[in-house]
Specification:
Helix 21 links the parallel strand 16 and strand 17. The chain is α/β, with parallel strands linked by helices and about 750 residues long. It has a domain of about 110 residues: Immunoglobulin-like. The structure holds alpha-D-glucopyranose (GLC). The site of alpha-D-glucopyranose has 7 residues, from loops.
């Protein structure tokens, strides 16, 4: 059996491969230490406070005021200030005109690309390809750093169970293991193999911590998270980012169990500093320090500053409570000089490690690479591998190039800005290649009949329906691009309902009635409740907001240049009423099982008082999601066989090798993402019915068979039970399969 080309491996293997090449050695012998101490000893309190302050250029009212503040050493960092010429000039003032010449650290949100825009991070997570994602973030770093940006507020690695939350678009989904692999890949892409590489930037693991658990999916809302969920789920990707060498963390907006994350000593000091030995610095989120007044956790901004500093927020973003109050707080002994020095020390170390003291200026020539064809090709590959095939009845896809004509319809077919998605500060819609353009280029304009039917995703007007239907009827297939405008997800953009906006469902139903083969491609910033169209369409591809090259990527898939290979990084639910729904749920005392659910429409009228099952289900939704985490189809088929375990019992400090064969039993080459899940049957606290513990993206030619091999140690089985983190002896289930609800089953015992 030929070993398949393994494209991406699970976290353990991958991180070990990457960490050694990056920051481990740099942390061990940090030459900056002595320089930092020397500089610190020369700094005045005003200069120290300056380093702890980051402002948006607009805050000071004019460029002159900004330059004066920099010259006076009042500012250590700027955000949203970019452009080679502009940054070099403000940096020259900092380096050559301020008393100590400490360079500025320029930050910007480069969340999924700078000018070459990749799929939204939720889409990139659907590729289950950390290596490809690392490459995307490297390209983002190359482009952004060419504009003087040396710090990006990414990766955003908030786990969430709520698709109403607009910022689900920015994260890596619901699973801590997949999100951890993505976090490590993104940090390595941003920070590169050497921090002093001019193309490298400082990463920023955000939003620390728990922001994705905002109640009701309403942004900035309260979060209540038990410590086991915090440690076993929420913090996992942040620990992976820290282990990957992330230089900075960002404290979040939300109050976490009553203590705002930006004033939370438990997460910021006990966990991040004392347990994880994080040695970078923490920046607040935009105004999250002073917002502790609104939270009702601080009396005023001075009190907020004291709480943030005491908790461990080293730099204040966008507001000036540090600048306005630190000297008073020192005099009142509400904070200590040691805390100030530690914060400044952390900030200076990052600047030294980024090489800013040796090389503060940006090479104007670096901008040549922006939108380089190789970058666009990477974006196309990323978008292709991020797309998930959800349905393909009668193998209607891929379409044949010799098809007579296709109708291209829907509000996202030619929406160059919407396909870029949220958090796209610097992307330019003019660079987008839309699906309409790509399909016309591929097939020839004469074969493409364009009739959007709706002007934009929220459009409820049916005036375009007639033309869309007539166009479909004179075509051999309809490709309908459904979804959301970009503004319907992202920060401050949560939705109570997660259906297709506008009259899209209505138009899709009418198109279905024409009986013309109907392919629906969805471009959205969240998992939508698409049950109706999933029934009606013949084929469905979920392409997320796929970025600059979304169009060519989708055309490649529709016409079979490549088979779709993505897998869902988040559970798809039937409607908002099922929230929160995540696959690693606990079993409960009354788990529903097939046959135990009484569907609401089958309840007899005037039903006597009796049991409808007394199990854990909804009368209308049942107890299963629409589509499970990890789900994704292919144009070919893969068969799993021969699950084997190296032993039926595993010593506590031993390891277990789990293998299975995977064969491409279809007619087309393709990638499969084999997934390893575990269940700890009994624990000192209730344990999830399944947990992802490994994955491998493998490429198999048609007919080819290979073996996937996973290695488990007791560390992979460890969990926090409210008191300690440890693996507990007992019986375990194990699966290797295509998603979180299928797979070959085995079992083993973990010995004492
Ligand atoms: C925003 C976001 C954060 C971002 C920061 C700077 O409010 O919460 O993710 O990095 O402000 O733009």
């Amino acid at each position: 059996m030929k070993p398949a080309k393994i494209i991406s491996a699970s976290l353990t293997v991958l991180t070990l491969a990457m960490v050694s090449s990056c920051t481990g050695s740099e942390q061990a012998k940090d030459p900056a230490e002595a320089k930092v101490e020397k500089l610190l000893s020369l700094m005045t309190i005003d200069e120290k406070i300056g380093q702890m302050s980051q402002l948006d250029p607009g805050t000071l009212g004019s460029d002159e005021n900004l330059k004066k503040a920099v010259r006076d050493g009042r500012l250590g960092s700027l955000l949203n200030y970019f452009g080679t010429k502009e940054v070099n000039e403000i940096q020259r003032i900092a380096v050559e005109e301020s008393r100590l010449g400490i360079p500025l650290l320029i930050g910007r949100d480069v969340i999924h690309g700078y000018k070459t825009i990749f799929p939204i991070p939720l889409g990139m997570a659907a590729s289950w390809n950390p290596g490809l994602v690392k490459g995307a973030f490297r390209i983002a770093a190359e482009e952004a750093s060419s504009q003087g940006i040396k710090w990006t507020f990414a990766p955003m690695i908030d786990i969430t169970w709520d698709p109403r939350w607009g910022r689900i678009a920015e994260g890596c989904g619901e699973d801590p293991f997949l999100a951890s692999a993505m976090a490590a890949a993104m940090v390595h892409g941003i920070q590169g193999d050497s921090l002093s590489d001019p193309a490298s930037m400082a990463a920023c693991a955000k939003h620390y911590a728990g922001y994705g658990f905002s109640e009701g999916g309403r942004d900035y809302n309260t979060t209540y998270i038990t410590e086991p969920v915090l440690r076993n789920v929420v913090l996992k990707p942040f620990k992976a980012a820290r282990d990957a060498g992330a230089l900075t963390f960002m404290s979040a907006f939300n109050d976490l169990n009553g203590i705002p994350a930006s004033g939370n000593e438990f997460t910021l000091r006990q966990i991040l500093r004392d347990e994880w030995h994080f040695d970078g610095f923490v920046v607040s989120d935009w105004a999250s320090v002073t917002e502790m007044v609104s939270h009702g956790y601080a009396v005023d901004e001075k009190d907020a500053a004291a709480k943030a500093i005491n908790a461990g927020v080293d730099m204040e973003m966008a507001t000036t409570s540090y600048f306005d109050n630190i000297k008073i707080l020192l005099a009142e002994k509400k904070i200590t000089q040691k805390q100030i020095d530690n914060a400044v020390r952390s900030i200076l170390k990052v600047k030294f490690r980024l090489g800013l003291f040796e090389n503060p200026y940006t090479d104007p020539d670096a901008a040549r690479k922006i939108l380089d064809p190789s970058f666009l090709e990477h974006a196309r590959t990323m978008a292709r591998q991020s797309a998930v095939l959800l349905k393909n009845d009668k193998n209607i896809l891929p379409l044949n190039r010799s098809i007579g004509s296709v109708a291209v319809s829907g509000p996202l077919a030619d929406a160059p800005r919407d396909q870029l998605g949220t958090w796209c500060f610097d992307g330019n819609a003019a660079n987008s290649v839309t699906p309409l353009k790509a399909i016309s280029d591929f097939l020839g304009k004469e074969k493409v009949n364009f009739a959007p039917g709706l002007g934009y995703s929220r459009d409820r007007s049916e005036k375009g329906f007639d033309q869309a239907l007539k166009t479909a009827e004179r075509s051999d297939a309809v490709i309908f691009f459904a979804g959301e405008e970009w503004i319907l997800s992202g920060e401050g953009q949560s939705r109570g309902e997660i259906n297709l906006p506008g009259a899209q469902d209505e138009l899709i139903s009418l198109l279905d009635k024409t009986r013309i083969p109907l392919i629906v491609v969805i471009m959205a910033g969240r998992p939508l409740a698409i049950g109706r169209l999933l029934e009606e369409a013949d084929a469905v591809i979920y392409a997320w907001h796929g970025g600059t090259m979304a169009g060519p990527a989708i055309a490649d898939l529709i016409f079979g240049i490549e088979s779709p290979s993505g897998k869902l990084p988040v559970t798809f639910i039937k409607g908002s009423g099922q929230i929160p729904f995540y696959y690693y749920r606990n079993n409960t005392g009354r788990p529903a099982t097939p046959g135990s659910w009484t569907p609401i429409d089958s309840i007899p009228v005037e039903n006597p008082q009796s049991s409808l099952g007394y199990k854990s289900f909804w009368l209308d939704y049942g107890y299963t999601p629409l589509l499970p985490f990890g789900f994704g189809l292919s144009y070919t088929t893969f068969e799993y066989s021969d699950l084997s375990l190296s032993d039926l019992s595993m010593p506590m400090n031993g390891k277990l090798i789990i293998k299975a064969s995977v064969q491409n039993t279809g007619k087309m080459d393709g990638d499969e993402i084999a997934q390893l899940y575990l269940r700890d049957r009994v624990g000192s606290i209730t344990r999830p019915v399944r947990e992802l513990k490994g994955f491998k993206r493998i490429h198999l030619e048609k007919g080819e068979k290979t073996e996937v091999v996973f290695e488990l140690t007791s560390e992979d089985l460890a969990f926090f039970n409210g008191k300690i983190t440890a693996a507990e002896p007992g019986e375990f289930d194990v699966w290797i399969g295509p998603d979180s609800s299928n797979g070959l089953h085995g079992e083993f015992i973990l010995e004492k």
